[in-house]
Amino acid sequence: MLKFAYPPNFLLFTAQITFLAAVCALLLSHSFISGVQGTSFTIVNKCNYVVWPGVLSNAGVSTISTTGFTLRRGESKTISAPASWGGRFWGRTHCSLDSAGKFSCLTGDCGSGKLECSGNGAAPPATLAEFTLDGAGGLDFFDVSLVDGYNVPMLVVPHGGTGRNCTYTGCVVDLNDSCPSELKVMKREGGDGVACKSAVAAVRMGHRTLARRHRTRRCLRELAHAPTAMRMMIKAAHLHVAKLITPLLSALRRTPEERYFGKFLVHQSDSDTKMLRVFAVTLRCINFGWGFFNG
């Protein structure tokens, strides 16, 4: 079993293999039941505030018993998932009922108007824990993604798996306070940040950093999009991120004719200051491989 110190505030998911995950910290574990592979997810709220987890099953797979519930500080809930299940978990925050009884949340809202999301996904920005059980080669796949932005710290830790890549992943640092103003979602004007938009969502077509291979005309968007698939946020990751961010930022500071990043020529249509701040947040939370934390 992996041993590590949890941060003070996060949602924790456990599943029985066993998965540990965190929305604020999610702990998930995966186990075998009567010769049939079964999985249960235990979600624990380690945040110092109430979180309303949401659940969305992938199209074409069996659903699980709930699609939304409430977890107060320190509370937990265990959910069983059918074989070959796939889907995502996320945390909703700052939720309330209006005078007409409509339920809504400031971050991660699924638009159902009720506590249960009933097949609806999270409105960005929201931290996502994504799972595919019994996937290719009979393996379980999972990640914590910030492609749709960030709203709460999250961690996933597997228990009992036999694969070499059964290690934990997540983003357990609070990015809301450090989020650039261009990406920050605030509870009220001048108030605290409650979520951080994805760089891709905030920097749209006319303001997107594009890249193209030298001596070709074909433009690619992967350079701006790929770094937003962030899966782990710990201090040790900064050393690895530096290998990527240093040449990229250096390229962005050069003249347009000299902005080369490896085999790519980097272009930008927005100010250097804004784009560099976006990339600084985007690249802080990258996990460079499942074996990274054991190295």
List keywords for this structure.
295 residues; mainly beta; five-stranded antiparallel sheet; 19 strands; 33% strand; disordered N terminus; disordered C terminus
Give an overview of the whole structure:
The protein is mainly β and 295 residues long. The protein folds into two domains: 11-174, Thaumatin, CATH 2.60.110.10; 198-285, no CATH class. 12% of the residues lie in helices and 33% in strands. Strands 1, 2, 3, 4, 6, 11, 12 and 17 form an eight-stranded mixed beta sheet that branches. Strands 5, 7, 8, 9 and 10 form a five-stranded antiparallel beta sheet that branches. It has a four-stranded antiparallel beta sheet with strand order 16-15-19-18. A hairpin with a 2-residue loop joins strand 3 (26-33) and strand 4 (36-45). The longest helix is centred in the last third of the chain and has 17 residues, at 237-253. InterPro entries: Osmotin/thaumatin-like_sf, Thaumatin, Thaumatin_CS. This is Thaumatin-like protein 1.
Gist?
Helices cover 12% and strands 33% of the residues. The protein is mostly beta strands and 295 residues long.
Oligomer: single chain
**Biggest sheet features:** 8 strands, mixed
Instruction: Give the helix/strand class.
Output: mainly beta
Total helices: the number is: 4
Number of DSSP E strands: 19
Low-pLDDT runs = 1-7, 14-23, 28-36, 204-241, 255-276, 278-295
CATH class of the largest domain: Mainly Beta
- Give the H and E element order: EEEEEEEEEEEEEEHEEHEHEEH
Envelope shape: globular
Question: How many distinct domains?
Answer: 2
Radius of gyration (Å) = 20 Å
Query: What is the annotated CATH architecture of the largest domain?
Result: Sandwich
Question: Could you give the distance between the termini?
Answer: 16 Å
Which bin fits the share of residues in helices? 10-25%
Strand content: 25-35%
- As for the CATH topology of the largest domain, it is Thaumatin
Mean pLDDT: 67
Report the CATH superfamily of the largest domain: Thaumatin
